[in-house]
Design goal:
alpha/beta; seven-stranded parallel beta sheet; 8 helices; binds nicotinamide-adenine-dinucleotide
């Protein structure tokens, strides 16, 4: 039997995990990819979810994920290239450039490899969609996260450029640019009351996003519901990128 399938990377936690759950609920087969084998195992109890322990910065992982989707479900409908990391020290600090290289390998190389692996299978299916999880940090500067911001800006222009190359093949490629979202990645920021309050005050909707809210946008961009959208970057950030940062 053929079930439309989606590959989701960075699947074991946060936005990726919520995305796996949403696609599975809506009848898709899901290949969940993450290096965190322990957390990934928790997803194996969900019907129609299979897992792959792997690192998106390798071609091997990306190719294996698509092959697993085809072998298990028969057809690839979409790829959600969600894995992302940050964490570089200040630009003058020892090791900063090596850390930039690692962040780039996951956030940009990983997205490019994901597109490269998915495209033949999507073409064979007569078309499909790719969604890259970028960030509002790729649309403007943010203090103290220069390497992350740089790679997310690159991921956004990868999406725009690849959308041009693949549009005529029926493959739509879009990005979501999440704002502040309640995931393990942001736990340290949320644990600092002053920092948390100062960020929250700048969000027009006055609150942080839930991973499920991001998953719904990803689902929209990956499904035929968004059939005329490609090369777009959709902020999902409570209005943060609409603001110039001034407070009332
Ligand atoms: P998270 O850190 O909570 O979860 C990310 C998952 O990705 C983890 O399970 C981790 O093991 C996995 N991962 C890390 N390196 C990987 C690799 N090399 N290959 C495959 N998987 C890998 O993160 P999150 O907050 O859910 O973020 C998901 C995406 O959303 C990221 O691309 C992030 O940059 C982006 N984003 C998050 C926020 C936010 O506020 N949480 C805001 C903007 C953008």
């Amino acid at each position: 039997m053929t079930t439309p399938a989606v590959v989701v990377t960075g699947a074991a936690a946060g936005i990726g995990r919520a995305t796996v759950e949403l696609f599975a609920e809506r009848g898709y087969g899901v290949v969940a990819v993450d290096p965190d084998a322990a957390r990934l195992t928790e997803l194996e109890t969900i019907t129609n979810v299979v897992t792959l322990v792997g690192d998106v910065s390798t071609e091997e992982t990306n190719v294996a994920a698509v092959r697993l989707a085809l072998d298990t479900f028969g057809q690839l409908a979409a790829s959600v290239l969600n894995a992302g990391i940050g964490g570089a020290p200040p630009i003058e600090a020892p090791g900063a450039i090596e850390q930039l290289d690692r962040i780039h390998a996951v956030n940009v190389r990983g997205a490019a490899l994901g597109i490269r692996a998915a495209a033949p299978a999507l073409r064979a299916a007569g078309g499909g969609a790719i969604v890259v999880t970028a960030s509002g940090a790729g649309l403007r500067g943010d203090p103290y996260t220069w390497a992350y911001n740089t790679t997310k800006a690159a991921a956004i222009n990868l999406v725009r450029s690849a959308a041009l190359d693949y549009g005529y093949q029926g493959i739509r490629i879009n990005a979501i640019a999440p704002g502040m979202t309640i995931t393990p990645r942001t736990a340290a920021v949320r644990a600092d009351p002053a920092l948390h309050a100062s960020i929250t005050r700048r969000i027009p909707l006055g609150r942080w996003g839930d991973p499920r809210e991001q998953a719904k946008v990803i689902y929209f961009l990956a499904s035929p519901e968004s059939s005329y959208i490609t090369g777009a970057v959709i902020p999902s950030d409570g209005g943060l990128t609409a603001s110039n940062g001034f407070l009332l």
